[in-house]
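Morning - beta-D-glucopyranose inputs below, output right after.
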Amino acid sequence: MQKRIWMMGLTSLVLLTLSVAGFAQMAENEIDQKVSALLKKMTLEEKVGQMTQVTIQAVSKTRGSENSKHELDQAKLEEAITKYHVGSLLNVYDAAHSLAHWHEVITRIQDVATQKTRLKIPVIYGIDAIHGANYTREATLFPQSIAMAATRNTGLMKQAAAITAYEVRASGIPWNFNPVLGMGRQPLWPRLWETFGEDTYLTSEMAEAYVKGSEGDDNNVAAKDKVAACMKHYLGYSVPLSGKDRTPAWIPERMLRDIFLPPFKRAVDAGVHTVMVNSTEINGIPTHSDHYLLTEVLRNELGFKGFVVSDWEDVNRLYSRDKVAASRQEAVKMAVMAGVDMSMVPYDFSFYNDLLDLANSGEVPMWRIDEAVGRILRVKYQLGLFENPYPDKSLAANVSSEASVQTSLQAAREAMTLLKNRDNFLPLRKDMKVLVTGPTANLRSVLNGGWTYTWQGNAESLYPKEKLTILEAVQAKVGKSQVTYQPGADFDKVLDLAKTVEAARAADVAVVCIGEATYCETPGNIHDLNISPAQMELALALEKSGTPVVLVLVEGRPRVITPAVEDASAILMAYLPGPEGGRAVADVLFGDYNPGGKLPITYPRSSNDLVCYDYKPVEIDDSNKMNPLWLFGHGLSYTTYTYQNLKLDKKKIGEDETLNVSLTVTNSGKMAGKEVVELYLSDLVRFGFPAGAAVEAFSGNLPETGRKPDGAVHSEQRRSDLPWAE
Ligand code: BGC
């Protein structure tokens, strides 16, 4: 069994300092006193409102789309905040806003909150800024997380997260629903690309980098360029058995703790302020009703101090979808008593009404309401929102600065993962005649994926024209006269194949760009991991043309391409590399950048052979023959590296001891390059169990965890350890 990886020798980038003076964060005890004092002044209605989050659509007149401008509805906004005391808003109504519009929206919201309410409690606005401030039109966008993981560069991740935080805050928004810390171990899942891949260690490293980049090394989120991060989706959302989004996962406790929990623990240790709940169920228990995970593990074991927000509509789904609650109101009681502090309702005030009734009848005790509201207010104080909830317009000047764009380009380059390079076919010479073809060759959207300007990321007209597609970047690199373009196929059908083959024959090389159209969440569900038949037909036809083929994969999950692998001269995995991805692909194809990315996932050979690299011996034995195309960690270079002098400073180590490993790595080839050294440990023989314990472990009797089989509510439990508890 292979387990865990260590990394050494990461090239560390010089971090750009984006630090902007902000409010000094109040001392913790001062915040606690303020929270306590405020709670005493609040009515039950005001408290329940703080726990309610609605989407901007609920307070808007018109959507913002490719063709229409978003407009708030002042009457609805005032009703939400003054009548229902709503404490939080989120999202866009369909499409990204300009900075100027964000400033207007946030200002109008905070005007109502601070001028038209009794206690002037500011609203906390939350947004999904998954790869840069992707709901702000002017923002710097980055490669999606799966590509960031391929860089193995935590310094770069931290820097990208810092730029994201800056640009989110420059939009007037203090809260980002990222990072996604689910383990990407189910390649069918349409959110695989939002994860850092299949390895727990790598995900944990990225988790810390992301949280510190977003919140700052000291987690002073009152700084004007920082935001509160939101680790999500806690826990185990990422491995639905069926591969379909928001369907059940079955994860034994042991695996949950060994593989899934550590990244969340790292984020908690890094000081993350908020967490979002897994939208579905694990082992038959919807996580929104799971007191064990949301309170016992998260609070009591991990020591998380921030607040818990539900995912979209998921409190109500305990009733409407999961059928574990007999009514909408029971669903609210279950979720709140399990540990949900804020409900992303998100379209109406049903949660507010239900919780109010439940509190009035005593079914949800006041201590639990105070606990939840206290946690929310605490984060609002920590963010400095009580001092100033308004956008700082002066930050706008540095949004999408040249340095930020360079960081995105660097990340896209470092992500590029060379999977195959027969006889060093790449890099291409710049005097070659090139055919560029395929459905991902000349679109901007496909380089970015979902969560880009719109939820599904498919509004091509919203993409800035100055960002180059792969075709445009190749043309810019070698000159238009050397490049021919044929669409070849779209995702579903071939387009003039004969003409494309003819164009290939007239060229020295065919660069065939295949992969996936944009998608996000449930609309991205697939029934088959194989790449679409039309794209396969195109690739195979060009491979038969006699002209060498380079496959460029632009995709968020590893679509099976096996029939086209053998005859391809080279294969480059570009993932979802972001707006600079076209340039990064061209840089690598023509040798202006030496690829060094490594797969953060195992690339399957066939659609029913889905395993991760940390397999058990039985999975690769003679009968089972697990045989993926490329394992996690695979990635070629244009140069060669020699590894020598591996030394371990001890032959034996005890439980808490450190083993130092050193080696010499030499670039023994002809081109400068960056190599990330990965160290894999194999547990060749299971050591260390006294005989009795081993028997226990093998028979599946894990230590008592205290989990109630139904994940049920424990309403009598009172958490008196909270500073504001009476
Ligand atoms: C997603 C979350 C996201 C939320 C708010 C949900 O559908 O699962 O990841 O943060 O919407 O947009």
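Note: Residues 99-115 form the longest helix (17 residues).

O.
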